[in-house]
Amino acid sequence: MPTSSDTRWQCFMRNSTQREKNYTELNMASCSRTQVISLYRMLVKESKKFSSYNYRTYALRRVKDGFRENLHVDNPKTLDMLINQARENLAVIKRQVSIGHLYSAQRTVVEKEPHL
Amino acid sequence: MMNRTLSRKLLGSMCGISNPRLSFAQSAVNTVQREKELIKSRELEKDEPRPLYMDFQATTPMDPRVLDAMLPYQVNYYGNPHSRTHAYGWESESAMEKARKQVADLIGADPREIVFTSGATESNNMSIKGVARFYKAKKKHIVTTQTEHKCVLDSCRIMEAEGFDVTYLPVKNNGLIDLKQLEETIRPDTSLVSIMTVNNEIGVKQPIKEIGNSYYQHHSLNVYLRIFISSISIMFLISGHLCRSKNVFFHTDAAQAVGKIPINVNDWKVDLMSISGHKLYGPKGIGALYLRRRPRIRIEPLQSGGGQERGLRSGTVPTPLAVGLGAACEIAQQELEYDHKHVTVLANRLVQKIMAAIPDVVLNGDPDQRYPGCVNLSFAYVEGESLLMALKDVALSSGSACTSASLEPSYVLRAIGTDEDLAHSSIRFGIGRFTTEDEVDYTVEKCVQQVKRLREMSPLWEMVQEGIDIKSIKWTQH
Hints:
The complex is a heterodimer of chains A (116) and B (478).
Chain A: H1 4-15, H2 18-23, H3 30-47, H4 53-69, H5 76-102
Chain B: H1 2-18, H2 24-29, E1 52-53, H3 64-75, H4 87-107, E2 114-117, H5 120-134, E3 141-145, H6 150-161, E4 165-169, H7 179-185, E5 190-194, H8 208-213, H9 215-229, H10 242-245, E6 249-253, H11 265-268, E7 272-276, E8 287-291, H12 319-357, E9 361-363, E10 374-379, H13 384-390, E11 394-395, H14 411-415, H15 420-424, E12 426-430, H16 437-457, H17 459-466
Parallel strand pairs in B: 1-11, 3-4, 3-5, 5-6, 6-7
Antiparallel strand pairs in B: 2-8, 7-8, 9-10, 10-12
Helix pairs in contact in B: 3-12, 4-12, 5-6, 12-16
């Protein structure tokens, strides 16, 4: 028998992005949840800036799959380690994106719209 | 076009008849007479879109994380790792040792067993020439296969000229070697057996673990008897295998396999292993050689100098490249399963889509014992070169980069018994970490379209459609 809070919850779940739905787990502490979500958003935002098609698609795919496979991690130590790894990867991506812009080449055949 | 195709086929079949037993080393290397530039090389125009890269067996793009690890050592930490007197040397040396550990962890070895070289070609040369020359007083025989990389075959040819006996084992039709035949070929004076783990042209995975291990049960009695007899000497005979029980060293060229399939040198009982940096998303110009310490392999060094790398390979170790290789190995270890899954899915998609769309396509090599990322397909009644020219939007190759300049079909395909005409029409698709589904779909679509178009123009295809058996035709000369 669904209660009103359940329907509000379902409404929230339907309206948030697919990724956020996976993170709004009730047993996660709210500060790490927002940390993780913001890290994910930043990683995706930076990965989209790669000028090379292959690197861009790989980074986006790997970030998504990486967060998805660590979805159910509860242990706070592992969580900390994963968050640190994500931060390091974010720094790597930022640097490599700027290098890619310095030495950019033409688009590949499969790229449909001009890259931003 | 038609005359050229026919005359090429005639030439090809004639060559097959006149030189059937040319030693494989010679035929593989003897490409100088047949060199001909068929696909003109040209620079891309300014706004021309770049072709898709589907040639991951030739080389791989560097992973951004690897470049990120290398750059500090190119810019600021530029010391020589062998300088012992200042901080530049010390920090460079510690980076080099860290990289050595990363490489060793990937293959399950000890860091002291890794020697940095300039690539898998140098590692192969060091292993074959080094082992053969060191033990040449008593051992004069080397065993290898017909499908090895050219550097191995050429080194063996040089060894033949120096007075060694080399046996080139044939492979079965699926590309794998016959273990019984290998056991029969090993003689008391064999010093080295060299078999590559994953072939670079057809992607076939040899049963390295079986070669190393399967004789343990048969020969363990011999091994323990020898321990008992030679109890005075401190020999670590923890494991024995065919090769070791007969004192034969086992070398494998794992350039295409490292970082793509799980490797453990102790499980596999290999004594020497060649690693190439630019095949696992690392920098070009670096590789490594694994040399077992227990029991110790001795090799005669190829490169003399200041005694770096334990005297086995003198010369300054290029720290940025070594750091890149180490980072690439660490990333490969973490991403091995993920990449393998991704590559398998894409490879299956490619093969199934092509085979569903057009008939008369043959997958070269064993369908199960293979690395999925290397797909070698033969399209019957189509010329390989013309298909490559038509597929100019996709970077592909037919056969390996070493043989692509010559007219002859690849010696690997000939060794697995492919017909001459199928061997001429083979294309190798390489799939790797960075390949996307869109790229595979584009490749499939273009490939199917071009094969259909080329077949329409081919007179052989017309004859097959009418039901004539090609093999029964008697070709006459005018």
